[in-house]
Write a structure and sequence with these properties.
By secondary structure, the protein is of the alpha+beta class. Helix content is 56%, strand content 12%. Strand 5, helix 5 and strand 6 form a beta-alpha-beta unit. Helix 1 packs across helix 3, helix 6 crosses helix 8 and helix 8 packs across helix 9.
């Protein structure tokens, strides 16, 4: 049982019995009762004035009295000008809760062939260290998100890109080649993943310096600031090198694979 639907149906019947006319369901306007007024839902009675041929207060009073006497959903009412504030009977709330409890998939929207197709990817392992509790967290977040998307009527595909290394590891390897001087966890006293992270940060530092130089150059050539920054990000030599290394990685280039092994 949906309380709003019950009230709409009751109002349609009330109008017919009180004023002898049929009305469309779309003319029954319900809204949440404003704070400071007694009631749960408010019926706007202005659309019915031509039918009742009475003022808003009288029309609201008559409809409210009919609903109170004939509807099991409405417990009481009060009238504020052209607005009929309805107090919902406790039995109706209990019935609604019982319906929810009896429906194991209450609130879920079933997906159809026309529903949006959504892919949820989780969780790719960290490329630099064994799996740990943080990955379990990511697994739970990914699974929960997929369930939420499915409950909202989406067709969900779940996937896990195993050992997805991508551009981030290439940035670290390239920075290590350029500025690492053969540093290792043993020579530095750092954990392997921390060492790799330091070079990822170092790559970003030099990359930003290149962006700033190129951006200034492009602006001096008359290119607008925003366009100059985007152009600099794409054409900075360091990012181009990283992308070239990524292509070689995906092609199983022996030198790049050997560098990763190292």
């Amino acid at each position: 049982m949906k309380i709003e639907n019950e009230i709409v149906s009751a109002v349609i019947t009330a109008i017919k019995q009180l004023y002898g006319q049929e009305i469309a369901e779309s003319t029954v306007q319900l809204q949440k009762t404003k704070a400071g007024f007694e009631g749960n839902l408010t019926l706007v009675v202005f659309p019915f004035l031509k039918i009742s041929r009475k003022n808003p207060e009288s029309t609201a009073q008559e409809i409210g009295q009919w609903l109170k006497e004939n509807s099991s959903v409405v417990y009481d009412f009060n009238v504020v000008k052209g607005f009929l504030n309805l107090v919902i009977d406790q039995k109706a709330w209990f019935g609604l809760l019982q319906d929810i409890d009896n429906h194991p998939l209450f609130g879920f929207k079933e997906a159809t062939d026309d529903s949006p197709l959504v892919m949820i990817e989780y969780s790719s392992p960290n490329t630099n260290k064994p799996l740990h509790l943080g990955h379990v967290r990511n697994n739970l977040l990914g699974w929960s998100l997929s369930q939420i998307m499915a409950a909202n009527g989406n067709r969900v595909v779940k996937t896990n890109i195993v050992n997805d290394r991508g551009i981030h590891i290439c940035k670290s390897m390239l920075a290590w080649l350029k500025w690492g001087n053969g540093e290792t966890p043993e020579t530095s006293g750092k954990k392997g993943d921390h060492l790799i992270g330091d070079y990822y940060v170092l790559f970003d530092k030099h990359y930003r310096e290149e962006i700033a130089q190129l951006k200034s150059q492009y602006i001096s050539q008359g290119i607008e600031e925003k366009e100059a920054e985007e152009k600099a990000k794409a054409e900075a030599p360091l990012i181009k090198e990283a992308h070239e290394m990524l292509v070689k990685w995906e092609q199983n280039d022996p030198d790049v694979r050997a560098l990763w092994e190292r």
